[in-house]
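User: Second chain of the day. Same drill as before.
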Amino acid sequence: MARNASGTYSLPAGQPVVSGTVISAATENALTGDLATEITNSLSRDGYGGMRAALKNVNGTVTAPAVAFNNDANSGLYLNAVGDVRLSVAQNDRAWFTSAVNAQKSPAADVGTAYTFDTKNALANAASKLAGWLNNGVEKITFWASGLIYSALGFDGPTVQTSATNGSLTLKGNRAGADAGSDVVVNSSAARSAGALLEIQNNGTSAATVDTAGSVHGVNQSQYAYLTADKTTTSNVMADVAGMSFAVAANADYEWEALIPINAVTGMASAPTFTWSGPAAPTLVAFGSVGAQAGSTASSYATSFGSAITSAFTVNTTVWAMFRGILRNGANAGTVQLRYASGTDTYALTYKQGAYLRWRRMDSGGYA
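Assistant: Same format as last time:
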């Protein structure tokens, strides 16, 4: 008779026998043959043979999972409800899986908020997305169909890190040597107007950045600025030369230079002047200039920010001036700024387009 659909076994015909029944080989063989068949159909504890149909279990509970372990009866899988399968660890829900979502529950020590990993059908703009992590129904990390991973968890965005404590992270392209394309591309989808596109840190300290113009800034690396248009003053009061400045960090060492073509009209009662302004109370600052005109040179220097230096060239022609300086800054961060003034009020003094400023941080503490 074997088992029915519910798994209940029934004895074959002629069974059970009663007292006085004549022994029959056919009856006995039918019983033993039927028992042998059903023993063969039973699952071996030692793993002999496998299931030939679906293995069905009791639903179980979070405290008594349906599929548990000899050495841990409090951990395993159970059916919480139709379409809701859960993983219990030490009698606590730790993950669950439904037809719409698979989710990971926060540890017991957490506030209990559930983080869910949703299929794209559960997300806004689902046609463009693969999946996303949600916190209380709010998207936090989104995996887009284009391959972009977007984070709403904070300014820093998602972090990629090796699992090994002493592991290395490698970005490696696979283009042929003759291919004209880029091997590794770091791209910002935003229209950036400020800040860095890429920052490299060492133990939480910035070591290098790539800015929105594509310039690379790193430790002890020279940086540049230049005038894209003439800068003219007709005042004998010191004023900033816009574009000729750089930021400095506290307790850091810098050197700088500027090469500037200068035009000063004739008729000035006194020579034009310049200076550099900077943070208060530096440990050491010194700067000076060397000017060249028609085979002659002149030089001057100062040892404090704001001290005026006089140029000896006042004729109506273009001369060249080389400015150089050094700074050991104190506790105040700030900006080192080139300033200029005409020798006589209303007479034009022009710093010409193409003038450049180069600066470099000399200590190994970073860049600014």
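The mean pLDDT is 80.

User: Great, on to the next one.
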